[in-house]
User: Which sequence fits this backbone?
């Protein structure tokens, strides 16, 4: 039985990965295509969040994301993940998450006390996609 | 975006009598502001002040001064998300709903006693507040509701003891 399940999981993983590997073009400029939705359209949050920019997410991937973060010009600047601390403590892992762009220049990880959408305390993992991204998302 | 969203008149039964005895409505003109704050990246969130004493009939205004997050001011009450009551029985429960940066919400507190409230997305983090309306001995006064043990640890720890708030006096910022 186990011998049958494992290869299926493997195949699913292989199918999922290439989507991200070859399909990042449409994500580089806002708005990204469906199933992404603008976070501020569906949750009571500012359209531009200082430090995180304008966020889009596929609701099916909540809470972890990826959240795609765009600057004021609509340029993809970061990919953000949100992982509840309690989930991590309970052994939940968040694996094989997508990335908005394969170019990553720096990563910030910090605690967040919660906000609409991900209301339990969680970690923000922010992958910046260019050297200047952090400054453009600041405010 | 409208700067003021909603106003709730929290007039409970017996409130008028209590108000007359304590000098209201003259005092009802008083407006106390409680700010909703957060650190720039959301590591922390709090009400400022998180504990305050006000006269009976005071108007309390909650303002979201956090540029990067939404907050609520929500009374602990069975009628609001089924929580155990932590405001006087004569008080009308309130919920601001999510306030975006710059938005505000007002409530008038006319029943003397202790009011505990929280922020929906930050209760687990300990974003709670306590308002003491009037003082022990006021007609109809209801002190702190017996702990029901239903609060997150950080929220329980965030509630300032009533006697400390009373001792500090009306509107002493904490
Ligand atoms: Cu809050």
Assistant:
């Amino acid at each position: 039985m186990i011998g049958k399940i494992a290869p299926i999981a493997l195949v699913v993983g292989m199918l999922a990965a290439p989507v991200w590997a070859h399909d990042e073009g449409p994500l580089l400029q806002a708005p990204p295509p469906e199933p992404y939705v603008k976070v501020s359209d569906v949750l009571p949050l500012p359209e531009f969040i200082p430090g995180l920019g304008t966020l889009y997410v596929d609701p099916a991937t909540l809470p972890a994301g990826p959240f795609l973060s765009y600057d004021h010009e609509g340029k993809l600047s970061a990919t953000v993940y949100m992982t509840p601390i309690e989930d991590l403590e309970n052994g939940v892992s968040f694996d094989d998450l997508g990335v908005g762009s394969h170019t990553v220049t720096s990563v910030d990880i910090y605690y967040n006390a919660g906000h609409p959408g991900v209301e339990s305390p969680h970690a923000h993992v922010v992958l910046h996609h260019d050297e200047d991204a952090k400054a453009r998302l600041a405010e | 975006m409208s700067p003021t969203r909603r106003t709730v008149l929290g007039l409970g039964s017996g409130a008028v009598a209590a108000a007359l005895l304590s000098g209201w409505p003259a005092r009802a003109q008083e407006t106390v502001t409680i700010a909703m704050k957060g650190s720039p990246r959301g590591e922390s969130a709090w009400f400022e002040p998180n504990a305050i004493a006000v006269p009976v009939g005071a108007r309390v205004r909650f303002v979201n001064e956090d540029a990067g997050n939404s907050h609520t001011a929500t009374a602990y009450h069975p009628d609001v998300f089924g929580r155990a009551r932590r405001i006087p029985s004569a008080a009308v429960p309130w919920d601001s709903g999510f306030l975006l940066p710059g938005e505000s919400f007002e409530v008038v507190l006319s029943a003397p006693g202790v009011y505990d409230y929280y922020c929906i997305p930050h209760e687990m983090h300990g974003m709670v507040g306590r308002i003491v309306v009037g003082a022990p001995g006021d007609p109809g006064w209801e002190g702190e509701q017996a702990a029901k043990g239903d609060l997150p640890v950080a929220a329980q720890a965030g509630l300032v003891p009533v006697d400390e708030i009373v001792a500090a006096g009306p509107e002493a910022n904490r």
